Amino acid sequence: MKLALPRFTQLALTVLMLCCVFAGGRAMAQQPPAAEPEAVPVQDLPVCRLDPHDSNKLAVEPCRPAPPVGTRRAVAQVIGRMPPTQMAPPVVHFQTMPPGSSAAVSRPLVPVGACDVGGCRDSSGARYNGAGNSTLDANGRICQRNGAFIQCF
Predict the structure, then answer these.
(1) Cross-strand bridge partners of residue 149
(2) 24, 51, 98, 149: which could join 57 in a potential S-S bond, CB 3.0 to 4.6 Å?
C-alpha cells in the first residue's frame, strides 16, 4: 500500500533516511571494535576494604564483597498502633443545686469605693484585703473584683 504524500515530503523523507544511514555507518567506522574484558573469577579478587588514608576510596579495586558474618533469619515485622494525636477533653458533669439552698442565692455585686495597695473598700466602708482582682472580705470569703464592683462567693 502506497501513501499519497506530496512530492516535497517524499523527497525530504528520502534525504533524512540517507543522512541517518550515512551518519550511522560513519560512526560505526570511527569506533574501534570493543575489546572483550578479561573475566576474573570472583574468588580470585581480594575482599573489599577501605583505604586507610582516604575513607572515600577502596584499598584495592576491583574487589569482592565480604562474606556474611552470620546466618540471617526471617523475623515478623511488628508495627504497633500510635496513640491518638489529641486526647479527648474530660467530661465534666455539673450538678444543679436544689432550690432554696445557699448556693442558689444570687450573690450581690457591691460597688467599690476606693482601692489602695492592700485592697479595696466598698461604698459602705467594708474592707476587702488582697492584691489584684482576687480579695478576701472580713469573713474570709473569696471575692472577685470586676471593674467597679466586687462579688463575694
Answers:
(1) 111, 146
(2) 51
Q: What is the DSSP track for 109-126?
A: EEEEEEEETTEEEETT--
What letter does residue 44 receive in the DSSP assignment? G
Q: All 3 cell numbers of residue 147?
A: 471593674
N- to C-terminal Cα separation, the chain: 104
> Please, what are the averages of pLDDT over each run of 10 residues along the chain (153 residues)?
61 72 57 57 80 88 81 85 74 69 66 88 89 87 89 88
Report d(CA 42, CA 36) in Å as an integer. Answer: 17
Q: How far apart are CA 63 and CA 12, in angstroms?
A: 54
Q: How far apart are CA 88 and CA 46, in angstroms?
A: 62
